[in-house]
Write a structure and sequence with these properties.
Blueprint (H helix, E strand, L loop, with lengths): L2 E2 L12 E5 L4 H6 L10 H9 L14 H10 L2 E5 L1 E5 L9 E5 L3 H4 L6 E5 L1 H15 L5 E5 L11 H12 L2
Parallel strand pairs: 2-3, 2-6, 6-7
Antiparallel strand pairs: 1-4, 4-5
Helix pairs in contact: 2-6
Length: about 170
């Protein structure tokens, strides 16, 4: 039985970069928010990339949905996933079948998106196969970022952060 994406995109009209995952993990579906698994490095990477602090000099990794939302919006980042519904076993991107893509026009028509960045190979593959033809008219650039998933153990946190900074150009 297909699962449907359980929560809406995160964006505002000032967003310039759209980061796309593939489909929410089991933990993200439970918490009803993006990158809910504590081992996923997304929030650590974004805090470093955006230079997010709690008012001091040290980087602060946001803990609450409100803090995460505030950080992304302040950094001009929109967040969603490439897949609206699919069959998936657990949280495994490799198991994804019967993909129905998300319609990105809800973001692209209402924000200043200049670049779409896919978090990982599977997100990029799905974007290119199902979504890229429909977003050409927007004239945005799109790239593949190395995955922040704990399954991408070949990439250290520092290496991930350095590469995301370079590719996001923030």
């Amino acid at each position: 039985m297909p699962l449907t994406h359980p929560f809406p995109p995160l964006f505002d009209s000032e967003a310039k970069v759209l980061i796309l995952g593939s489909f929410p993990s089991v933990k993200s579906r439970e918490t009803n928010f993006f990158y809910g698994h504590p081992q996923n490095r997304f929030w650590k990477v974004m805090a470093e990339v955006l230079g997010f602090t709690d008012g001091g000099d040290s980087i602060y990794v946001p803990q609450t949905v409100e803090e995460k939302t505030r950080m992304l919006k302040a950094g001009g980042i929109a967040l969603w996933d490439t897949i609206r519904s699919c069959d998936i076993t657990g949280s495994s991107d490799a198991s994804i079948t019967n993909v129905v893509p998300n319609d990105l026009s809800v973001i692209l028509d209402n924000a200043r998106i200049e670049k779409i960045c896919c978090n990982g190979a599977r997100s990029y593959e799905i974007f290119m196969k199902y979504t890229e033809p429909s977003v050409r008219k927007y004239g945005v650039r799109y790239i593949k970022l190395p995955s922040t998933s704990p399954a991408n153990a070949a990439w250290s946190l520092k290496r991930l952060t350095d590469e995301w900074k370079r590719l996001l150009e923030i």
